[in-house]
Amino acid sequence: MSVDELLDWQVKGAPVLPEGTSIAEFVAGKPDVFSAGFLPPLMVLRDSALRSNLATMAEFCRSTGTELAPHGKTHMAPALAARQLAAGAWGVTVATPSQARVYRSCGVSRLFLANELVDPAAIAWVAAEVEAGLEFLCYVDSVAGVELLAAALPAGSRPLDVLVEVGPVGARTGVRSVEEAVAVARAAAAVPRLRVVGVSAYEGGFGHGPEAPDAATQEEVREFLRLLRSAGEAIAEVVPADVSFIASAGGSVYFDLVAAELTRGWRFERPVTVVLRSGCYLLHDDGSYLHRTPFGRTLAGKLTPSIEVWASVLSRPEPGLALVGMGRRDVSFDIDLPIARTIRHSDGSTVSATGITVTALNDQHGYLHVEDESPLQVGDLVSFGISHPCTALDKWRFIPVVDDDYRVIEYVRTYF
Questions:
Q1: Based on C-alpha coordinates, what's the Rg of the chain?
Q2: What distances in angstroms separate CA 377 from CA 13, 316, 350, 353, 372, one per listed residue?
Q3: Are 352 and 342 in contact (CB under 8 A)?
Q4: Torsion (CA) 187, 188, 191, 197 in degrees, nearest 10
Q5: Most buried residue, 1, 218, 379, 386, by most Cβ within 10 Å?
């Protein structure tokens, strides 16, 4: 994001400022969120939480000997990806060629497309970027997909690195057996413009609910990771000897199991780079991932929710009910509804939002059940945590980052 961009009516929630005020000028003064004239609702990111989460995950990767290519789809914010890379991330994961184009345009030199690449226009763009020096990896899970790549890649182009994807039966993309993995790997290895570099999978679909995974679910994940390992060992013969073998998995719930299963000895004599792709750890949340992250469950350490959405109390039309100016256009709601955290009165005093529950959202309104003893008043501000970071930031094009005193120290831009 250019620091010369204006902070005006085009920026959701922005204060009314003198015409021509740039984001850089505004941030330079470290304005207070509550007195600078922001127009709620407003999403903010807590800088201390971002820093803490970066350090926690970096230490986990260091201690387990794993690499991290955090999934960029979670925030689609190059400024946040830059923080992750500065903290030691191996690369950035993306889900679509368009996402890859965003991060490449912002200077990322290693991109991991955790998906199949089948569209001719996308293949041509990737091939051109690889020729220009981009390190790029993507999936194959069928001979048909290999043939599409072979037909679309320009003759004489640099080899495109591919991983054979393994998927659980009834789930998303990926081969379902070791035998299929071998067939796809051999087909890809027979194409001069492709280079097989390993195997990959997504295990996050197991037990995909709001609660912490139970022992039976965790054993299912381990069994699936053992299938991934078996597929990797079976295709190792077609991975060039001078290439570091890559085994990748690890969403935001089971990366502890991935590290445990994939970093132990393999049945071949060559180094294995284990690449995790966790995306939600940086932002974290107050709902789904708060309960499901391995930190605090099987791992020492802690992740801290960094996202807050502040909204005004618009009405208390009847006992037990309040309406705030925050709705589906502002917060994630696909897994859980937002969680009320803090009430801020007009005099600046704050109290816990205990006894307040979000029961429903319209486009621009949030319905709150309010217990009788709650001090909530019309005109108060309420902060909300969210559940599922992957569907939160896409509602905001510019998001202020605040310090622990709620002074704005940065703005990040998203590119959804």
A1: 23
A2: 22, 8, 12, 12, 12
A3: yes
A4: -150
A5: 386
Q: Strand (E) positions, 238-361?
A: 245-249, 272-276, 307-318, 321-324, 339-344, 350-352, 356-361
Q: What is the mean pLDDT of residues 156-170?
A: 95
Q: How far apart are CA 412 and CA 76, in angstroms?
A: 10
Which residues lie closer than 8 Å to 349 by C-beta, 6 or more apart? none
Residue 176 token pair = 């379902």
Evaluate whether 108 touches 92 at the Cβ level (below 8 Å): yes
| Whole-number pLDDT of residue 4 | 74
- State the amino acid at position 371 in one-letter form: E
Q: Residue 29 carries which DSSP code?
A: T
**For residue 412, what are its two tokens?**
């990040």
What does the block give as tokens for 361? 């959202």
Distance between CA atoms of residues 185 and 140, nearest Å: 8
Q: Which residue has the tokens 């022992």?
A: 215
Count of residues for the chain? 416
107 forms beta bridges with none
Distance CA 209, CA 56 (A): 24
**Beta carbons of 146 and 194 less than 8 angstroms apart:** yes
- 155 by Cβ neighbours in 10 Å (0-12 / 13-18 / 19+) ranks as exposed
Instruction: Order the strands of the 245-249 sheet from edge to edge.
Output: 67-68, 272-276, 245-249, 194-201, 160-166, 135-140, 110-116, 92-94
C-alpha–C-alpha distance, residues 130 and 124, integer Å: 10
Residue 359 neighbours by CB under 8 Å, 6+ apart: 337, 367, 368, 369
DSSP 8-class letter at 185: H
Please list the residues that pair with 175 across neighbouring strands: 166
Residue 243 in this model has a pLDDT that exceeds 60: yes
Identity of residue 150: A
Mean pLDDT of the chain: 96
- What pLDDT score does 1 carry? 45
